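Fold this sequence, please.
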Amino acid sequence: AIPETLVEAGAKKALQDMSDYLKAAKSYSFHAEVAYDDVLPSGQKIAFAASADLSLRRPNGLHAAQSSDTGARRLWYDGKTLTLFDPVKNTYAEEALTGNTDQALEHMINILHFTPPLSDFLHEDPARALGKQTRFGFEVGTSEVAGVACRHFAFVDKLIDWQIWIEDGKVPLPRKLVITYKTLPSSPQYAATLTDWDFTTRLPDTLFAARVPASAIRIPFMKTGQATPAPAAK
């Protein structure tokens, strides 16, 4: 095991305080503005942008909608069915699934090989999700993110370096996340600024029920060992 002393106590506590704050909420939603790199075969980095809206309602409601320069995705989970829709290609995949939001996320990531945007902040314990591979961590200092005073922390994992800005004060919300994929060629980055946190608006059942156009083509989820599937009629 890696000695915990390699992560500063203050950094560890701040991450856990943020996690506990989110864990205590019955539901919440937030918006993210994202900048990310794509690396060409030549090694040149190309900058792209995305925006995402994410909602969680315990114990088993998830909704994510992301639009980017390179595509779009919408995700719904209502405790019974998991649906992923591509509005650009007008295709969707659907699978019966029961369990809470953590079980749904683990199934998506490990079985379906699809990671929802900023899924660490949708886990029951975001600190554990973010820091399970962390080797080193420390507080960099303070800075503002979109006008909000934040504490800035930096962490080192085996495959990535990551930084998080957590709102300073009694409401320790995550305000920014930056990931550097240091083992990939040209070390591409992913940066997300998190705004519009809402813990009070009631999230209705309809938000977590899939809304897929009748014209959409159903395709299977790709799972480990599967060949490329042929589209199936809806």
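Residues 134 and 157 are 4 Å apart (CA to CA). Confidence is low (pLDDT under 50) at residues 225-234.
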